[in-house]
Amino acid sequence: MTDQPMTAIVLPTAVFVNLLADVSQAASRDEHLSMLAGVMLHTDTHKGQTVLVATATDRFTLIQGHAPVAAGPPDQRLWLTGRQVSQLRGILRPFTTRRVAASSQLAIELVGDMVHFRQLALEGFAGVALSLPIEPGEFPNVIKIAQPTEPYVPSDQPVTIDPRYLRRMAALCRSGENVTVQFHGPAKPAWITIGDNAGSRLWAIVMPIRQESISAAPVFDPSPVKPAEELAA
After folding, report:
1. Could you tell me if residue 162 is inside a domain?
2. What is the mean pLDDT of each run of 10 residues along the chain (233 residues)?
3. pLDDT of the residue at 141
């Protein structure tokens, strides 16, 4: 993380809050895995435009989403703890209502070891700003995982997926969106995309359940056929 101020990135407040809410579904609930209980943010370039990318994982699932931003250099990274994510969603929720969501904008700026979230001036609302310390620690390098380089190869082999994860992904769909699931084999993660005809809004991977090999049932010699009346005796 740079010690020099970066150009603030600006995006709609509702888009940012929804992005956090969506990817947080994959964050760990295990108190012993605190580094996986939050969300990693980074900026990147997608189709020639700077985007803010949010990623969360609990080691079994990973969800990543992105949103265009008005400014800001690429390749800036920030990890938010689960508590910080909850703080942000709570303080910014009033700016996501239908009445103000269309005009509500949020600026995010990293300066030294602090990150500043500033709700831009909005008529009828008091200004809101939240400064959070940048927590130490290394978030897993999920960017490499979330950007597979191998081409998609369809597989007709059976894959066992925990249905709870599939329900979680389906619940992230909005009206008019679809879920696309691609299987690569029984031991490889399934790739899931959520979006509409305009493109994907969320991307996820789900690890399959490892199944122990099950031997075929033994074949027994058939018993001698007896008349029904003898069996009933």
Report:
1. yes
2. 57 93 89 79 84 89 90 71 91 86 87 87 72 73 56 69 85 87 80 83 85 44 44 41
3. 63
Residue 228 lies in a domain: no
Domain shared by 14 and 93, yes or no: yes
> pTM value?
0.77
Domain enclosing residue 27, as ranges: 1-137
Own/partner contacts of 109-116, CB < 8 Å, gap of 24 or more, are 109/5, 109/6, 109/7, 109/8, 109/9, 110/1, 110/2, 110/5, 110/6, 110/76, 110/78, 110/134, 111/5, 111/6, 112/3, 113/1, 115/78
Please state, in angstroms and rounded to a whole number, the distance separating the CA atoms of residues 57 and 125: 35
Number of domains comprising the chain: 2
Among 27, 10, 42, residue whose Cα is nearest residue 81? 27
Q: How many residues does the chain have?
A: 233
Domain end among 137, 167, 184: 137
Q: What's 130's domain CATH number?
A: 3.10.150.10
pLDDT at 159: 78
